[in-house]
C-alpha cells in the first residue's frame, strides 16, 4: 500500500518532522484544553490545564496521525489532530495517577513539578480521573467533525476504553506497582509493558487508521507494530533510567534501581537490553512490511524510539 | 403519559418493589462483575470485584429502569438492567475514590472496610479509574443487546461521560473537598450537590429514557426530577449524618461536623433542612406532573429518598 502525498522524513528530516507534528498536536491540545477547562468545575480547571500543558514528545498522537496518513495521505484535516489529542489526554491521565505517592511517588515529570506536588493528592486524583471521560468526549467530537458515521465513532470510543482499562494501561500499571521489591521474570515484565505502554500505543494507531477507513489487515499490522514499539519504548526507558542524567530525563533518574523494580538492564544487562529493543523495532517494521505498508513516518518513529536520549 | 402494565408500588408495596429491583440489579451486576474481573489484569480483579460487591441501595440503576418503564412499561428486558448497572459502576468508582485518604479518608463504607483499606491506596486508585472505561463498555454492550442504533448508543455513552466528568460528579467532589474547613454558603453547597449527586442521578434517568426511545420533553422532565431528587438525597444525607448512628449508616457518623464541612443542618437547622428536602421532592414530582408523566415508581422512589433511615 502506498501513502499518496506523504513526504518521507529521512535523515535530518526526522527531527523536523517530529517537531512539526509536535507543534500541531500542541496547538490542537491547547485549544482542547481551553474547552475542557471551561467545562470543568472551579478548582479542577487549574490542575487539568497544568497536566495537559506538561511538555511531551507527543509520540501517541503523532502515531495516530501517521496511521491516518497510511490510509489517506496528505492533506490531514485539523480534526485528525484533535482526534489524536484524545489519546494524549488518556496518556496524561495515566501520568498524573502514576506520579501519585501511592504509585511511583514522583515529584518531577518532564522537568516540572508533578500535578499532586502543585495541587495536592486529592485534586490530582480527581483531575486525572476527570480526564478519562473528557478524552472519550473529545474523541467522539473529533470523529463527528470528520463526518464519521455513528457506528465508526462508537468503535473508536470502544477502542480507547479498552486500551485505557483494566486489561490495558491500568492493568499494566498495577502489575508494575506490584513488581516492586518482588522477583519478576522476563515474561511478567513483558506482560506489564505490553499492557502499560503497548496497549495505548497500539490504540493510537488503531484509532487513526479506523478513522481513516483503513481495512482490517492494515489495522492488524499497525496493532502489532504499536505493541512491539511499546515494548521497545519501555526497554529504552529502562536503559535511560540507568544511563541518563535526571536533567536529560526531566525526571528522577536511577529510580528503578532504588525501588528494586524489575528492569530489562537488570535481566539482560545494558547491551542485552539495547539488543532486545532493536529486535522489537525490527519486528515492528516487519509487521508493516508484511502487510505492504510503506510509511516513512512510521519507520522514522520506530528509529526515534530506539535512538532517543530522553 | 401512561406507563402501560406498570404495577404501582404503593404503601407497603414500596419496600417489596425496592427489594425486587435491587435483587434484579444485583444479579445483573454480579454477572457483569464476572465479565469485568475476567477482563482485568491480575491484581485488579480482586479490588474491582470487592468494590462492585459493596452492598447498596442501587438507587441509580433503579431510577434508570423506572425511566425505561415510563416510556415502555412492562416487561423490562434483562439488558435494561445491565444498562442500568453501567451507571452503578460509575457510582462505585466515585465511592472508591471518595473514600481515599486524600479525599474523605473513610475506613468504612456501607458497613464494610473500604477498598483502599483492604487493597492499599495504589490498587484502590487504579481499580477505581479502571471502572470508568469499564462502565462505558458495559453501557455500549447493553445498548447493543437492546438493538439500539449506533447513533443512540453513542448518545448514551456521551451522557454517562458528561455526568461523570469534570463538570459533573468529579467537579462536585472537588468542590466538596475544598469546602472543608472553609465557609460555604447555601448557593455553593447546592452547586456541590447538584454536581456530585444530581448529575449522575439525572444521567441514570436520561440513559433509561433515551434507551427506551422517550421524547425530549419526557427526558427533560426526568432530568429536572433527577436533579431535584439528588439535592433532596444529599440534604437527607446531611441530616442522617447528625441524627443516625454509625451502625444504621454503615459508615462513620458525625463526620461532617468533625471535618467542619458545610452542611444543610448547619445552615438551616435540622427542621429547616428536612423542610428543604421535602420541598425539593415536591419540585421533583411537579416536574413529572408538568410533563404528564404518571409513574408510581418514580413517586415512590422520591418518597423513599425523603424517608430513608440510612
Polypeptide structure, described:
2 copies of one chain form a homodimer. The first copy, chain A, has 310 residues and is mainly alpha-helical. The first copy, chain A, has one domain: Farnesyl Diphosphate Synthase. Chain A contains 14 helices and 2 strands. In chain A, a hairpin with a 2-residue loop joins strand 1 and strand 2. The longest helix of chain A is centred in the last third of the chain and has 28 residues. The N terminus of chain A is likely disordered. Chains A and B meet through helix 6, helix 7 and helix 8 of A and helix 6, helix 7 and helix 8 of B.
How is the secondary structure organized here?
2 copies of one chain form a homodimer.
Chain A: H1 13-38, H2 45-52, H3 59-72, H4 78-98, E1 108-109, E2 112-113, H5 115-119, H6 121-145, H7 150-164, H8 169-178, H9 186-211, H10 216-243, H11 246-249, H12 255-258, H13 264-290, H14 296-307
Antiparallel strand pairs in A: 1-2
Task: Looking at this protein, list some descriptive labels.
two-stranded antiparallel ribbon; homodimer; 73% helix; 14 helices; mainly alpha; 310 residues; Farnesyl Diphosphate Synthase
Give the name of the CATH superfamily of chain A.
Farnesyl Diphosphate Synthase
Query: Which whole number gives the mean pLDDT of chain A?
Result: 89
Report the β-strand fraction of chain A as a percent range.
under 5%
Spatial order of the strands in the main sheet of chain A? 1-2
Q: What is the total domain count of chain A?
A: 1
Amino acid at each position: 500500500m502506498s501513502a499518496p502525498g506523504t513526504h518521507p522524513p529521512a535523515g535530518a528530516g526526522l527531527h523536523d518532522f517530529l517537531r512539526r507534528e509536535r507543534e500541531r498536536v500542541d496547538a490542537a491540545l491547547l485549544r482542547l484544553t481551553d474547552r475542557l477547562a471551561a467545562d470543568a468545575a472551579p478548582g479542577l480547571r487549574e490542575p487539568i490545564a497544568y497536566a495537559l500543558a506538561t511538555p511531551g514528545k507527543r509520540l501517541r498522537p503523532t502515531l495516530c496521525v501517521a496511521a491516518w496518513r497510511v490510509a489517506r495521505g496528505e492533506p490531514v484535516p485539523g480534526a485528525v489532530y484533535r482526534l489524536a489529542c484524545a489519546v494524549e489526554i488518556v496518556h496524561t491521565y495515566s501520568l498524573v495517577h502514576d506520579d501519585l505517592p501511592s504509585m511511583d511517588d514522583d515529584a518531577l515529570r518532564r522537568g516540572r513539578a508533578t500535578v499532586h506536588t502543585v495541587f495536592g493528592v486529592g485534586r490530582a486524583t480527581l483531575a486525572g480521573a476527570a480526564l478519562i471521560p473528557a478524552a472519550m468526549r473529545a474523541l467522539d467530537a473529533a470523529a463527528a467533525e470528520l463526518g464519521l458515521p455513528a457506528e465508526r465513532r462508537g468503535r473508536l470510543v470502544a477502542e480507547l476504553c479498552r486500551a485505557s482499562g483494566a486489561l490495558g494501561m491500568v492493568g499494566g500499571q498495577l502489575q508494575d506497582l506490584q513488581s516492586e521489591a518482588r522477583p519478576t521474570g522476563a515474561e511478567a515484565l513483558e506482560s506489564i509493558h505490553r499492557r502499560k505502554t503497548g496497549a495505548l500505543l497500539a490504540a493510537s494507531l488503531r484509532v487513526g487508521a479506523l478513522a481513516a477507513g483503513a481495512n482490517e489487515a492494515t489495522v492488524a499490522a499497525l496493532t502489532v507494530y504499536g505493541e512491539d514499539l511499546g515494548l521497545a519504548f519501555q526497554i529504552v526507558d529502562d536503559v535511560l533510567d540507568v544511563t541518563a542524567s535526571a536533567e536529560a530525563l526531566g525526571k528522577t533518574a536511577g529510580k528503578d534501581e532504588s525501588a528494586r523494580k524489575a528492569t530489562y538492564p537488570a535481566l539482560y544487562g545494558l547491551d542485552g537490553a539495547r539488543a532486545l529493543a532493536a529486535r522489537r523495532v525490527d519486528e515492528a517494521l516487519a509487521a508493516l512490511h508484511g502487510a505492504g505498508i510503506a510509511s516513512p513516518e512510521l519507520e522514522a518513529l520506530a528509529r526515534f524510539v530506539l535512538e532517543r536520549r530522553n
